[in-house]
Request: fold
Amino acid sequence: MTSRIRSFFLPLLVLALIGAACSKSPAQSDSASSGKSGARPAIVFMTDFGTANDAVAICKAVMLGIAPDARIMDVTHQVTPFQIDEGARFLEAVSPYYPAGTVFVAVVDPGVGTSRKAIIVKSKKGQYFVLPDNGLITPVIDRDGLQSAREITNPNWMIQSAISSTFHGRDIFSPAGAHLAAGWDFVLVGPVVPQLVRLTPKTSTTSDKGVAGDIISLDDPFGSLITDIPGDEFKKLGYNLGDKFRIEINKKPVALPLFIDSRDRVSIAVNQGNFSKKFNIEPPGAIFIPRKGAPLKDK
Reply:
């Protein structure tokens, strides 16, 4: 009797297992944060939308509607509007601290509504970046390497309603990032992008007279000026800790306190104050630091 029962139920069990396997969505895979380790998938979000309107909240609602288990963390939503290079620096600075499989959604998109592509980039570190193809990813790829890039063209990866011409953060980038976090297969999002748009970042120049660079950002809310001069280049100028010296900002000689910030760049600040407001200096701007003992330029 036991043998007969076994012979009856065993084929049914096999059929049930096959049916369960076939019921899984073909779009799902372990290519992003599929939860192999049981951890909730992470979406790291950055925009220039600001916080005085509902745009960020709407994008997060779209993400959670698709990937309700996702953890959504913010880089900032205070990127200076339309400043792709600033957003690129933030993305470069933050991404090393997140593991492989993290999905970054970055929307600094002055070209929204034009022919610029919406893309997903996978770095050789195994992180995913959902963003416009406008150079925002350049410094990350220069550091980590490019594994693959694809254009978001599959409508199943977009919001399931009419796509606006002005809010691709809601309609394309947020749903695409959420589908990645939910485990959808990256290769199904659209065709390979053979060539990415690149930023041409400003870099400082060191000569026998000193180092010339640019003021590229503010460290708000403290008002410190951030430059593109690496700490190692400054150290070549011959100064010692505590030395007093004069520099040029926008071709005007000034005596200012400099320090090397946590990202190993020369910065300018005042202790417990806002340097930018106190001296009415904001980026963009030029800076020149002479070598020790050398005169300022054109003097």
